[in-house]
Write a structure and sequence with these properties.
Blueprint lengths: L11 H33 L14 H7 L3 H17 L4 H27 L5 H24 L3 H34 L1
């Protein structure tokens, strides 16, 4: 026997989805912001002739970071490999998409809060923003696929994971809205 007095006016799907949107939004804002910073640092420090200088691993920095000379040299070679593998257009495209993605991810945190407290505009805005994030994922996918194997290895798994998560959020909002319309 169900008790009608226990029902709230807030849809449960919106509260759950809102919490998930907040958590993923905070994480994705950091991930995309880090990507913008990484591309900016790599491109601004790349020599014009494309020839990277020899590894410089000062002993005091190694001790501060708690790494060995071999680890330092590996990290420098890894960054060199990624920088040299990137086509000329890639850093600009990646910074632009990551910047837009960070902005949309931050907006998704706000929308997540609105879903938790269920405001009327939140579910419509969630569909738009989550779809926008999925579109950014697809554009990043298209950019990475058109690079070489080094960048595909670095980026593709993360991009595909975020794409699936964003599709799941879109489906969750649409399913919640559908169940609300039927009620």
């Amino acid at each position: 026997m169900s008790n009608q007095n226990n029902k709230t006016s807030l849809p449960h799907w919106a509260s759950i989805l809102g919490v998930v949107a907040i958590m993923l939004g905070v994480f994705l804002t950091a991930v995309q912001g880090n990507e913008v910073m990484k591309q900016a640092v790599v491109t601004s420090n790349m020599p014009a002739d494309g020839v990277m200088p020899a590894a410089d691993c000062p002993e005091d920095e190694l001790e501060e970071e708690g790494i060995t000379v071999a680890e330092c040299e590996y990290l420098i070679e890894h960054v060199k490999g990624i920088a040299l593998a990137a086509p000329d257009w890639f850093p600009t495209v990646q910074m632009t998409l990551a910047g837009i993605g960070a902005l949309l991810a931050f907006i998704s945190v706000i929308i997540g809060g609105a879903l938790v407290n269920y405001t009327p505009w939140a579910s419509k805005a969630a569909v738009v923003v989550f779809s926008g994030l999925a579109a950014i994922d697809l554009l990043q996918f298209a950019a990475v696929v058109n690079t070489g194997p080094t960048l595909r290895e670095v980026y593709l798994s993360g991009i595909l994971l975020w794409f699936v998560l964003h599709l799941m959020l879109v489906v969750g909002v649409l399913a919640g809205r559908h169940s609300e319309a039927e009620a």
